Amino acid sequence: MSKNPPRKTNLTAEDWFNLGVTLGEQGNHQEALEAFTTAAELCPHDAAIWFNRGLVLDELGRINEALDCYQRATELDDNYTEAWNNLGAAYQELGRAQEALESFIRATRTRTPNRVDYANAWYNRGVILADMERYEEALECFIETVRINPGDARAWYNRGVIHEQLGQNEEALASYKKTTKMTPEQVEAWLDMGELLGKMEQTEDALKIFKRVIALEPENARAWYDKGVALGILDKHKEAVEAYVRATKLNPHDVHTLYNLANTLARKLKRFQEALDITNRLLEVSPHHINGLYLRGRILIELNRPREAQACFDQVRKLDPNYPDLIKTK
To answer: What is the CA radius of gyration of the chain?
Structure first.
């Protein structure tokens, strides 16, 4: 087929539409756009043509033009769930959150026989409400999503996140378990579940999960960090240090890992010189890390370097005159 197919042919709007669909499926988006444009010229009141023209414009990165097409599709067919969904997604991509929400709400009010499209509408509505920190409303949307489509692992995961955000830990745990059962490879759900178990003081179970994630993704820095935290709670400080060291190799600039590593080396294992080296690295990354500055001061006292220690405490005092542990240094 030529790159620019002639428009003066005997092809009908339906022919051009079908040609556009085929070209789009083949990844020939520019040619597909030309076909849908011709179809729209021949039959300007067909919502499906405008919707599919929007799809290829989306693929071409022409989001404003895609939005116009989705808008036209919804004007032509007020009950077009997928068009309302895509219109909402286009608004969302453009940072127009309220208009996106209104489109997703409209999508959930359609009367579509397509269960998946309808469930997706509720899911997208929940996502944007969560982004707007309207958590209780978001939770209702994710609950509705899985009621319509119980196999939607994304919705179960987000339901868990929102339950946890609202302090509903048991419900969050149940949702994470549901997610990991459906998608065992989704490490984010495993890690969130492990961290939640840690908050619920079920540390042994949390540790098992972090080890499982590491088996799935040996280079996952967050999993190594979480493993270190769990081992520390279980008073396995040497193993905790090994986990933190591995995490710092994978993510050298993570201040939480660097601080925990230095703190464990100093306070639990009395390996002060190593701890000092790590606090120096921490403060290179984050010069005003107040806990790191205080820890460095305490380490320097242990190394009999009081003047340098006092300089650290002075910095802490400038950052926070009411820092609670400063009283111990007077």
So the answer is: 28
